[in-house]
Amino acid sequence: MELFALDAELTEWEAKLPSLTGLARLQLLAQLAWHLRQRDGRLARQRPSEARNLLPQAVPATRRRFGARALLIEGELSWHGGELAPAARYAANALDAFALLDDALGQADALWLQAWIAIDGGQPAQADQHLPAAAQLARSAGASLRAQVFGGV
Which of 48, 79, 87, 133 is 20 to 30 A removed from 38 (C-alpha atoms)? Predict the structure, then answer.
């Protein structure tokens, strides 16, 4: 899953959503929620709620990956709202969930969020630990642009 998407892509995905059912709809809902997290918090929360109705159709690993990404979305939304303690809990739980899934990209995203929470919480030294680890995980997942964004060359 890319870190960010263009507005035109979101518009295209939203237009496609009504025609999808089952797992295809679940995947697109998860993708939309992730990309709406920094644009429209209300809608970013609605998408996972709708997707949860489709989760019983998914294999367990897909359900766990969706749950981990939903934690990360809640963490970002809490962080954007200035609620640093809940954001930190969501990010830590997401990091643990992604680690259990051996999902390096998810772990990288969780560490990136933890770094920004640390910066806003006045703990730049902690952020200095999270960012290189996030960059390394992103690089190991083949996400070189993400690794650059997270501070790795």
Answer: 133
pLDDT greater than 80 at residue 69: yes
Mean pLDDT of the chain: 91
Predicted TM-score (pTM) of the model is 0.89
Tokens of 131: 């960012």
* Cα separation values, 47 from 8, 28, 30, 35, 128, Å: 18, 9, 7, 11, 33
Cβ atoms 81, 100 nearer than 8 A: no
- Residue 153: band (very low, low, confident or very high) from pLDDT cuts 50, 70, 90: very low
Distance CA 74, CA 58 (A): 21
Integer Cα distance of 67 and 58 in angstroms? 12
How far apart CA 101 and CA 28 sit, in angstroms, is 20
Evaluate whether 63 touches 55 at the Cβ level (below 8 Å).
yes
Write the CA distances from 57 to 33, 135, 136, integer angstroms: 19, 34, 34
Burial class (CB in 10 A: 0-12, 13-18, 19+), 78: buried
